[in-house]
């Protein structure tokens, strides 16, 4: 009599679509499909891939970014990626005029105005506009860190944090300041740096009205009003 086969649980879950994988490498390959391909309906996806087995296949990526070296399988996706370097934001919210580099981000943003939050955490009840944000939030409760650095073994709850961390090992700094030429590994650090040049201070104290260029400085300042020790 044959022994019953025990299947390993799918430990690695995609934050974008909820699909689960038993192997981290398969998840990371799958995530590239979200980064590269525009959203499709299930009918369109099935029609385009009638023999798809569910396991991602390797794709040729002939289109390379001159700024950071990242490669893409489609020229259109390279064009979308280039907006991270140029700062171009062609999609504008008709309610608050905020602009976005991608149409999908604009659609997600509009839920801020409608208040729609269809995804709820079973542990604490907090609701989210996106499934990926819910999955990311739930790792706070579980302590799960499915994304591991191949160089040093450090683990992360988000793939984006792993990608940023890996730049420490490679020395890659794709984001350049137009003002002084200084380069940064993360776009958020470039944005923060450019406030030195522009003088922008978007973070305002609700108690006294003082403004700051960094949210960390605002939080430190607020302790003056609360009496909390720095």
Automatic annotation (TrEMBL):
MF annotations from Gene Ontology: DNA binding; zinc ion binding
GO cellular component terms listed in the entry, alphabetical order: nucleus
Keyword Ribosomal protein annotated: no
InterPro entries noted in UniProt: Znf_C2H2-type, Znf_C2H2_sf, Znf_C2H2_type
Keywords attached to this entry: Developmental protein, DNA-binding, Gap protein, Metal-binding, Nucleus, Repeat, Zinc, Zinc-finger
Pfam short name (any one): zf-C2H2
Residue numbers spanned by region Disordered: 35-61
Domain spans labelled C2H2-type: 12-39, 63-90, 91-118, 119-146, 147-174, 175-202, 203-230
Annotated SUPFAM superfamilies: beta-beta-alpha zinc fingers
Gene3D superfamilies: Classic Zinc Finger (3.30.160.60)
PROSITE patterns given in the database record: ZINC_FINGER_C2H2_1, ZINC_FINGER_C2H2_2
Protein location: Nucleus
GO biological process: regulation of DNA-templated transcription; segmentation
Task performed by this protein: Krueppel is a gap class segmentation protein.
PANTHER family given in the database record: C2H2-TYPE DOMAIN-CONTAINING PROTEIN, ZNF44 PROTEIN
Family per record: Belongs to the krueppel C2H2-type zinc-finger protein family.
Name the record gives this protein: Protein krueppel
């Amino acid at each position: 009599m044959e022994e019953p086969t025990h299947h390993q649980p799918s430990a690695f879950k995609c934050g974008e679509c909820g699909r689960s994988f038993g192997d981290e490498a398969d998840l990371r390959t799958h995530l590239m499909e979200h980064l590269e391909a525009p959203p499709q309906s299930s009918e369109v996806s099935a029609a385009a891939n009638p023999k798809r087995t569910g396991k991602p296949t390797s794709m040729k990526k002939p289109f390379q970014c001159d700024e950071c070296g990242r490669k893409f399988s489609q020229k259109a996706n390279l064009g979308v990626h280039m907006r991270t370097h140029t700062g171009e934001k062609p999609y504008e919210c008709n309610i608050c005029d905020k602009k976005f580099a991608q149409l999908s981000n604009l659609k997600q943003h509009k839920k801020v105005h409608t208040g729609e939050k269809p995804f709820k955490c079973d542990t604490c009840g907090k609701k989210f506009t996106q499934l990926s944000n819910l999955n990311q939030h739930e790792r706070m409760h579980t302590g799960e860190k499915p994304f591991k650095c191949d160089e040093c073994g450090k683990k992360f709850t988000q793939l984006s944090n792993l990608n940023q961390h890996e730049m420490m090992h490679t020395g890659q700094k794709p984001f350049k300041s137009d003002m002084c030429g200084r380069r940064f590994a993360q776009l958020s650090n470039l944005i923060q740096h450019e406030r030195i040049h522009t003088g922008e201070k978007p973070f305002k104290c609700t108690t006294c009205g003082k403004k700051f260029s960094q949210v960390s400085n605002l939080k430190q300042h607020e302790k003056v009003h609360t009496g909390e020790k720095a």
